[in-house]
Amino acid sequence: MSSHIRTILITGAGGAAGRSLCRQLRLLRNAHLRIIATDVREVETCADIFLTGPAADSPELIDFLRSVIASYDVDLVLPTVQDELPVVTAAAPELGNRVILSDPVSVDVCHDKLLTALRLEDQGIAVPWTRAGSQTPVDYPLVVKPRVSHGGRGVVVVDTAEELPELDESVIIQGFAGGVEFCPQVYRSPIDDSVTTVMLQKMKLRDGRIGNADSVLRIARSLAPDVAELAEATVVALELYGPVDLDIRRGRDGTPVVLDVNARFGPHSACAPELLRQLLADAALVVPEAPEAPTAAFTTTALQAS
């Protein structure tokens, strides 16, 4: 195995997804990696080098990334901030194609929850009924969520018409799927088009019926094969490559529907470490020895607190 040091840049090091990736890379044995982490504020990190950088919406973001790449001879960039994906993906050629993400059009679709739902519906992929906030609801209960957001921020369940607030085009309304929720972790290789899926089931939602998962459980594909197949069909339908973090939930009749698609590593990627190893191989970096298998359960709150 080569001893050449490879440098990986992780953005959003203070978020759950960034911290998870940093720790996974640090745990890889014989990988010969140097980790550089960035965030808009100073945070504790296990990276070798930490740099404070501009926010996702700053016009200085790409210049900052370009400078870091040149100064530290970065081999691979792993963006984890949802809001920076469109601009980073569009600038990938300027960054020396060191980013393994989907093309800008696909990323832009995933960045807008209304466009995501409409594109999937058009492709025959199961989603809850979805409307713009200014349109008439189909039925109740429903979910109101921002068109552009990440995680469970700004998401509320509305059970009756009397509870429905005044809405505008900045939000969408969507049928509420109240069954078991999953967050499949998918990696589609840009090299050989292979698709790898790791099934995670959400065990506790932070806000009760909705919200981010405080804990997830890695389960066998055979326990929810229809969910795994839906996740893979979604990635292909949206023409996504690289890491993809999905939210899929069963409806009242048990049918799984796609709720959200994030074209990046999510906060639970530590439960699927083989996806990161596959990305490292596709990036032509040293394929490191695998770490120990992850435990079945992974608690997000424990990761955030530690």
TrEMBL record:
Ranges of residues in domain ATP-grasp: 112-292
Any matching Pfam family: ATP-grasp_3
SUPFAM superfamilies attached to this UniProt entry: Glutathione synthetase ATP-binding domain-like, NAD(P)-binding Rossmann-fold domains
Domain of life: Bacteria
Annotated keywords: ATP-binding, Nucleotide-binding
A GO MF term: ATP binding
Protein name from the UniProt record: ATP-grasp domain-containing protein
Lineage, highest ranks first: Bacteria, Bacillati, Actinomycetota, Actinomycetes, Mycobacteriales
